[in-house]
Amino acid sequence: MPQNLIKPLLILLWFPLLTLVAQDSLKSVVAEKGDGIYSLLRKQGVDPYITYDDFIALNLPRLRDSLHLYEGMAYVIPKTTGDSLEIVKEDTKVAGIKNSVKGISYDIFGEKYAEVTGKSERLKGTVYYLISGHGGPDPGAMTQYAGKSISEDEYAYDVTLRLARELLSHGAQVYVIVRDPDDGIRDERILEMDKDELILPDQIIPLDQKDRLEQRVDAVNKLYLKHKGKHQRLVVTHVDSRSKGQNIDVFFYYHEKSSNGKKLAESIHNTFKKKYKKYQPNRSYSGTFEDRSNLYLVKKTLPAMTFIEIGNIRNKKDQKRILDYDNRQALAKWISEGVILDYETK
Asked: Which residues, at least 6 apart from 35, have a Cβ–Cβ distance to it below 8 Å?
């Protein structure tokens, strides 16, 4: 490119950013190597869970794939509304996790993400059961990345914890059925494997597959009967394990005889289609929602439910969706928005 064109081009590229900052007196910061949207916002003292959508809207032309930052690029930081809320300690070893309008600290999410600040009470009075696939002696699908083994259960668990945090912030009561005593929400690309997951409250996961599934069904169904009369839903999260060459979008399954389960799956599916259209307009969304009544958890659990496949861990393209923690957070947030849509559209 001729040198005399470079400077005018740079001015044109930066003009929208300068206009935004001038109009709203918003702060702008330069992304450093390794920064993601959430880490950038946290470093600026801004709650990323409250301001994520505002950040995307302000900075969309300067985001790669509508989700990722460019090192050395300046980004506008949205303003927060109100001061930090009071933090209250609560023992998270109990079976249920219940939120209030105050900020609450939950050990299950790990030190970094322990505090959950209430965003709304849109899900007040609801009960959600979250099951991440596999765990304990069963790691699920496995593959190699950067010379290390990675497994389905660790990534499904991380997305599930992030989803639990989102639901809690909107006033829901949440039961995390598969629980790891020392792995909270993690931002690493490679999530170290272990086998110490338990089933709520503190049950060791058996080796036999049928026993494992029955244990989870029993845990959910007992709690369902306890909360009979409330709005109750189950979300099961898995990472698929198809052939390496098969790139998939997010799939949602339900029981053919459950109209509420179908509505939940469809609500989350429609939310994903809407998000792809908004944030990735050049990429079509090919995920589906469909009946899978033959799956054991779909067939045997009492609450209306959806079974989610979030990607193929063996596929290089899908690994980008799964290994990047910003993407895992986006998945959890979009699922939560679909859950809210399901609840608010009777």
From this structure: 43, 69, 71
Q: Residues with Cβ < 8 Å from 124, sequence gap 6 or more? A: 171, 172
Q: Can you list the alpha helix ranges (DSSP code H) found in 203-309? A: 209-226, 259-279, 296-300
263 CA to centre of own chain: 20
pTM of the entire predicted model: 0.76
* Segment 244-299, tens digit of pLDDT: 445 457 889 999 999 999 999 999 999 998 888 777 776 666 677 788 888 899 99
Please name the residues in contact with 188: beta carbons below 8 A apart, sequence gap of 6 or more.
Answer: 325
Q: CB burial class (10 A; 0-12, 13-18, 19+) of residue 199?
A: buried
Alpha-carbon distance values, 335 to 123, 299, 310 (Å): 14, 22, 10
**What gap in Å lies between CA 54 and CA 63, rounded to an integer?**
13
CB 41 within 8 A of CB 51: yes
Indicate the pairing of strand 231-240 with strand 198-199.
unpaired
